[in-house]
TrEMBL record:
Keywords: Copper, Disulfide bond, Metal-binding
Binding-site list for Cu cation: C83, C87, H177
Protein family per UniProt: Belongs to the SCO1/2 family.
Protein's name according to its UniProt entry: SCO family protein
Gene source species: endosymbiont of Galathealinum brachiosum
Top-level taxon in the UniProt lineage: Bacteria
Length: 218
């Protein structure tokens, strides 16, 4: 309970500070310097990195392109459904982030799980996987080429590694991949990279600071 209260107080302070900075940017009479990216666990891009268009499908087999990321914030995590540890742990934390922000009447970003194992992760398997953590989470898959194209733009790296047999086979392999979270701004571009270790408090703080910077520069 004390930990939750401390997170609430920290978020309230962040919101107040962010609002003050943003209002200062709108008032030409203030003496505040132009806003600079705040320090987060990771980095806020001074100028968001442009994401070029891509074509994937979600867990409902619906086509998803960059247009689907316009006009709202999104938080992307790359992983795969056969992941034994990092993925389920991170997905659980992101569910906590989403639920906590909603409880505090703060609009959470859309949570997106981008599979970097499209050969095994079909829309059907993604549906059962992402909805296990949260019914509103979005799962993305597609061709190896399209997944790779988007992953590179997100600065996410991945590769196959030996499975239980000690070798890489069609069905027996693991995927080494980035553990960072990628925050996408309402223009569909990469605004921030959130690095591990991930906790609800660190993620929420990074989101609020990133959104404040975006508001102050647009």
């Amino acid at each position: 309970m004390k930990k939750q209260q401390s997170i609430i107080l920290a978020i309230s302070a962040l919101i107040a500070a962010s609002a003050g900075i943003w209002m200062g940017q709108q008032n030409p009479d203030t003496q505040l310097p132009r806003i600079k990216p705040a320090a987060i666990q990771g980095a806020i891009y001074p100028a968001a990195k442009t994401i070029n268009d891509f074509s994937l499908v979600n867990q409902h087999s619906e086509k998803i392109t960059k247009d689907n990321f316009i006009d709202h914030w999104s938080l992307i995590f790359v992983g795969y459904t056969h992941c034994p540890d990092i993925c389920p742990t991170t997905m659980t934390v992101m569910n906590q982030v989403s639920e906590f922000m909603q409880q505090q009447k703060i609009q959470p970003p859309r949570i997106v799980f981008l599979s970097i194992d499209p050969l095994r992760d079909t829309s059907e398997s993604l549906k059962s996987y992402v909805t296990y953590f949260n019914k509103d989470f979005i799962g993305l898959t597609g061709s190896v080429e399209e997944v790779t194209k988007l992953s590179k733009q997100l600065n996410a790296v991945f590769r196959k590694s030996p499975g239980a047999s000690g070798e890489i086979s069609n069905d027996d392999y693991l995927m080494d991949h980035s553990s960072a979270l990628m925050l996408i701004n309402p223009q569909g571009n990469l605004q921030s990279i959130l690095t591990a270790p991930h906790t609800p408090g660190n993620i929420i703080e990074s989101i609020i600071k990133s959104q404040a910077y975006y508001k102050g520069t647009h």
